[in-house]
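Quick one:
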Amino acid sequence: MLRRRSFWIAAAAVAYTAFAALRASGGHGPAWLALLGLPALLALGLRWVERPPRGEDRIEPAARGAAAVCLTGAAMLAAARSGPTGLALIALGNLGAAAASMAALVGLARIAGLGGLLEPPPSTRRLDAAAFASLFWTVAVALPAVSAAAPERAADLDPLLVHYATSAASLGSLTVMLVAIARVRIARRLELGVADRVEAALLLSATALAVGLAAAFVGVAAPESILPVTSAVAAVCVAFCTVAADAAQVSRALRRTLALAALATPPALLAVYAVHEAPRGDLGLRGAPASSVGVAVFGACALCALAGLAAPALSRRFAPEGARWLGAFDAATRAAMNPEPEAALEAALSALRDASDAGTAGQAPPALYLLSPPERVTVDRAGYAHTAPAEVPARLVELAQLEPERVLRVEAAEAVEVRRPEVRPLLAWLAERDIGVVALVNDAEGPIGALAIPRGRRASPMTLEEVCGLRAVADRLGAVIAVSAMLSGSRGREVAARREAEERAREVSRLERAVAQGAGRFRAIAALLSRPARAAAYSPAARAALEQLERLGEAGGPVTLLTAPGIDAVAWGAVVHLSSARAGGPLAIVDGAAPVPEGFAQAFAQARGASAGPAGGVPSAPAGGAGPAGAEGAPPALALWRDPDSSPIEAAKGGTLLILDAQALPAEVQSYLGAALPDDVRLVVAVPQTVDALVATGQMSERLGDRLGDRAVALPSLSSRAEDLRALALDHLARIGVRLRGRPFGLDLRALQAVLDHPWPGNDAEMGAVLLRAALMAKGDVIGERELAAIGFAPQPEPSSQGGAARSEPRRARRRRADKAG
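Output:
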């Protein structure tokens, strides 16, 4: 500010006036204080009226310039009054008062509104009031100036003319100011902020005029001395009202000023009158002693102090509508601080209801309209909330969004009803619900509702202070609704999470049941496969083999089954599987004598998008061989075992992989099994010789042999199971009979004797084939020697190098063991 030329011009004018007063007083008196202090005070005042460096400025630059001129004029008047009374100082003082008065009228015409529906009428921006006031002050400045500059030409003028001109100009400018303020007040009474500023300017100017006239009437000072000061004070008050940053603050300051003036002015005037009349000795009262002056002054000071304490309480009585709505908005804002959203909403609406006319003459209560979902929330007399479906017009939300403080007032909409037809449907909607004002409720993303206050019996428009209070309530309710929405969303997410958790639990339970059912199916299949091994395990050899396999199955690790030709290794491998911890897992069986397992080869072909060939499966290589790598339709063996879609290892995950004739697998597959078999797959192999013998002859990979180790079990042949032959034969015939005729076959004694006498070098495969062929030849349900002879079956002698007695001994021993077991 110190760098601006306007400040130095104003400071020079004030300093010149103060220097003139100092020279006229002979270098003595308060002129020194004026010369030193008034420029500093002027600098503070001009700094106050400057545009703020940050934030939005709603004050017009012309109004700020007028306020700066007003302060400069008031400072010139104060500087002129610091010296003795003289024509030159009177002229300078009147010039300062004139500048202050006309600048205040210019600032009054440049009061900026807050926008919205209402626009300032052109008539309120005219400067005719300032021009009219200048006529008064032209005479009041010219007379003393001419008299001081050319006393010989003004010798014929009556000195009282200067005093009369000064008093008339002061009263005239005050009158013009009051009329101009009243005109702006009438024309712009509905504009937020403008009405508050103009109301404050009017009351402060009227108060200054009343105080000045009272002081002149009681003789505190001459009218020509007190009235210019009154005019300047009124002008400064108007300038303050026009450039104050917060119009609501102007209203609050006005109420306190009026309260203080109403209480303190009478005792202050009494004290001034007492001091003024003190030289007379009677204070205007006959017989009063001179010492009563001090008592009167002390009493006046005490009364002024009490007035200062009582002013805040009295200022509430000057608030619009008896401060009813201001108190209600403040109470609602405090009530909305409740941490519980529903309770906060009910308490806030209850506080607003208490201040409204709800419940009397059918007046509607305050309501909160929510946009999504479209609802209307009200509270009854007991404080309970009620919700009903209701929608807010979208155009209403749009207009309220553009209004000052996002508050739409009915009186503002009614004022523009003629020139803005789109407002009429909204007015009908508001009138139907007796709504006087609507405040938008926003969250971080935009409008979420509208707070409606009933119009009731109110006649005066809402002030900016009330609108700001309503805005605070709406903002707090927006926060409450946002918190409620967050809690509702949290509860919704919690419910959704619980529902999802329940669904997941049900899915887990279903999968567990499916897994359990799958495990049960796997066990049932494995039990069905193990039935031939357990069906007739009476002989010591069979029982010993079963016990050993069960122990190895429980212990874990690979198991080698040493099988003679024709022994069903699948049944014994199923026993190992059922005895292990993986009994609920799959049992995958691979025949190593085939180049590619049929089912796995089909899966491999489907995974590659190729055809698996006709129902007979893929072409097979010679038994025990790997087949040509490029054979048509046959995938490479190692690729099949490595492919996750077709590998037997993947099929056996979590269970047992049983490989028949493992020595017949290709060497690369054997090495892969020995190195890459995962821990969750149990390996059981069936081989005709021991692992060491196979490795020594090169039929088995050393890596696979190392993995198998020495956990081998020799499966008993039928020749060592004489106690089991009867049960095995009858079991075979029962299954064959049910499969062929629906009922089991029997075996007569002679046929049974032939079965017991036969050594069965082909073991299970030979017995099954012989009994199936005999069953096909049988006419009835019992198979005898005729059916056996028909298929060419005759007991073969035991291979022996001894004589006939020696050859018949094993056969008699088997018969005795069979008779004993039977």
